[in-house]
Design goal:
Layout (H helix, E strand, L loop, with lengths): L22 E8 L6 H11 L4 E4 L3 E7 H12 L6 E6 L10 H4 L7 H24 L3 H4 L7 H12 L2
Antiparallel strand pairs: 1-3, 1-4, 2-3
């Protein structure tokens, strides 16, 4: 029987085995006054994407097919783009190499570093909000122009005179 896509169109390479999409895991760190981790998790559940979601003390861990995870994380970021941050995670939630139950308790490797990163996020979010309100600083708006030879000579003479 020929393969069909969700739209009913015939899939390319009917007789070839379809390669499974690479599975990835992302950490969604929420530092928002508007969005709680439970709100973000509910939005993902409602989206019906085939991803696994785990709520944590800092946000969510999302695992699934790469395109689905990337799309769902971007949708969550848009809820409060300056205060929701996404980070790659090398292992899916519950992976025995990182699972505290298997390792005998204690913080998981990388937790202390993540905790320090999370402490900086409110300041980063505020800076992004300010940048959005005011626009880039004036010195970044300046057009690039060539340096005149006379100006270069003046700079060199000033530096040599020191």
């Amino acid at each position: 029987m020929p393969g069909k896509s969700h739209s009913g169109q015939k899939l390319a390479g009917e007789k070839k085995f379809m390669k499974a999409e690479k599975e990835i895991t992302k950490i969604i760190v929420i530092s928002s006054e508007k969005v709680l981790p439970v709100d973000a998790a509910m939005k993902i559940y409602e989206s019906e994407f085939p991803v696994t979601v785990k709520e944590t003390c800092f946000g969510l861990i999302v695992t699934g097919p790469e395109t689905d995870v990337l799309q769902v994380t971007e949708e969550i970021r848009q809820l409060d783009k300056n205060h929701i941050f996404v980070k790659d995670r090398g292992f899916p939630a519950g992976d025995e190499r990182r699972c505290r139950a298997v390792r005998g308790g204690g913080p998981r490797p990388g937790f202390h570093f993540l905790r320090e990163e999370v402490k900086m996020l409110p300041a980063i979010g505020e800076a992004l909000d300010e940048l959005e309100r005011k626009g880039p600083p004036e010195e970044l708006k300046k057009q690039k122009s060539r340096l005149k030879v006379s100006e270069l000579e003046r700079i060199i003479e000033t530096e040599l005179a020191r």
